[in-house]
Amino acid sequence: MGYTADMELTFETERLLLRPLIEADVDLGFDLLTDPAVTKYAGRTHTRDEVVEQMPTAVRRCAGGAIGIWCVTDRATAEKLGTAILLPLPIDEDDTNWDLVQGDALPDAEIEVGYMFKPSAWGKGYATEACTRLVRFAFEETELDEVVAVTAPENAPSQNVLRKSGLRDVGLRRAYKNECPGFRITREEWLRRSQADEGT
Length: 200
What we know:
By secondary structure, the protein is an alpha+beta fold. It has six helices and eight strands; from the N terminus they run ββαααβββαβαββα. It has a five-stranded antiparallel β-sheet, with helices on one face. Strands 6-8-7 form a three-stranded antiparallel β-sheet.
């Protein structure tokens, strides 16, 4: 399956709209990356200047747009709730290697699904909804054979989100310069799960 410039990259779920992140979403960047509660398990807290500086990189995409960051909004109110990602998983680095996010092909790296939401959006199932939709996109629209994820060891809520989204525990693995709980789902597993869901 090839990639085309007109690949559909905006998705709706029951309650959410996911669309590619743009530089005008810097306000969402402020809400997420300058809040210590949000960044507790996801890197470090940033200054507003750092967020502005990083936006041109954060909107970078590759593989026809299949790899990158999505802005997640509430379909009913258009409020920006958070972000969801399909990006190369860092192993011995503490952040995404954005040099891999370029060109028409998939990066030569494991691709992780992840998300970051404002505290006001926590506990409502939004992360599971967004994560499940990106996993579906990965296997329906791209050539990815697997999607992986990691969390901080103590981040039980995110581990539950990943399980609800169909990923399975694979034990501790190296990522972000640390040993982290790892999760993965293969295309074959996703297809089996989808067929089972259709049969119910």
